[in-house]
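Reference record
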Amino acid sequence: MILNADTPVEEYSFFLNYTEEHGDDYDGMVLYIAPGSNDSFKKSVLPRLQNLLVDKLEIVR
């Protein structure tokens, strides 16, 4: 969980869950990012991830 100092846990910015999955849709390591606010994620984080990971990034809603 990512949050600013002195912020209550309920007001987190992002919750990260890194896991390994095998199945029809995924095979391998998966990073789930749950934003506290969708607008914040789309404006500040998603463009950076797209630049960094290019074709390795798959967005699943």
Observations:
- Residues 13 and 37 are 7 Å apart (CA to CA).
- The two ends are 19 Å apart (CA to CA).
- Residues 9-56 form one domain.
